[in-house]
Amino acid sequence: MTVQFPTIADCVGNTPLVRLQRLPGNTSNTLLVKLEGNNPAGSVKDRPALSMISHAELRGDIQPGDTLIEATSGNTGIALAMAAAIKGYRIILIMPDNMSAERKAAMSAYGAELVLVGKAEGMEGARDLALKLQAEGRGKVLDQFANQDNPRAHYESTGPEIWRQTGGTITHFISSMGTTGTIMGVSRYLKEQNPAVQIVGLQPQEGSAIPGIRRWPQEYLPKIFDASRVDRIIDMAQGEAEEVMRRLAREEGIFCGVSSGGAVAAMLRLSREVENAVMVAIICDRGDRYLSTGVYDSPQA
């Protein structure tokens, strides 16, 4: 009998959905988190990374041996570096130089070429430079911010998984918003199953810096974003997100990044407003890629 063993690409998705036990307190609501850090490269971005490359191949836009280019704040870059290694592409990743050392090291480990822009230029500067390199013939920009294969990955996998794992009982979905691919794809799927499901997006308060999520200037708003797919947007303070992130590790055994702490903080806020709800928040990555930033060094919450 021939045994068909999976490849690493086959291990993307089908992540656990687990119940929070202590943080919710005394409530009639069920608070669940989806552990996207269990993906092979450690984040929810593994899904769109493989999707964007695979569908570009199917269209004939790229072929093995080509060079790919992408602007990233971290997780997408790590995921794309992994996917490029799997499929045989060179990849140039452009990111702000204030991103964590672990993120830079992970991208390099997968063989990516890193190009850093200054903190002041930020992701907007990184996106502009990616397009400039493409115009110079250096490679092909996948453009997670405008590429429909980004939300498609979540429409085809993350959304159906959540619906199946909750037995169709989900009432609220909460996700941080960066490229907005996760919330766009999951919203589309869940609303098709039950239009009453509430879709809640998270963005940082003015002055707060939460890795992976942004308040985009209008001219840089991701083209994949459709405001009609989000029922409510919550502004999150950096301090609150970091506090809940640390509590998740110490009280729930869930080790994650700051944007995930923010998503759970928003879910806790929502839980105080309703009863008998089934809420799902995305834990988008693992906490080990933030250790060098010192966010886990603060006094216990």
Automatic annotation (TrEMBL):
Pathway this chain belongs to: Amino-acid biosynthesis; L-cysteine biosynthesis; L-cysteine from L-serine: step 2/2
User: What cofactor does this chain's UniProt record say it requires?
Assistant: pyridoxal 5'-phosphate
Q: Which Gene Ontology terms cover its molecular function?
A: cysteine synthase activity
Kindly state which keywords UniProt assigns to this record, in alphabetical order.
Amino-acid biosynthesis, Cysteine biosynthesis, Pyridoxal phosphate, Transferase
Q: Where is the Tryptophan synthase beta chain-like PALP domain?
A: 9-285
* E.C. designation(s): 2.5.1.47
Tell me where on the tree of life, at the top rank, the source sits: Bacteria
What is this protein's name? cysteine synthase
- Report the gene name: cysM
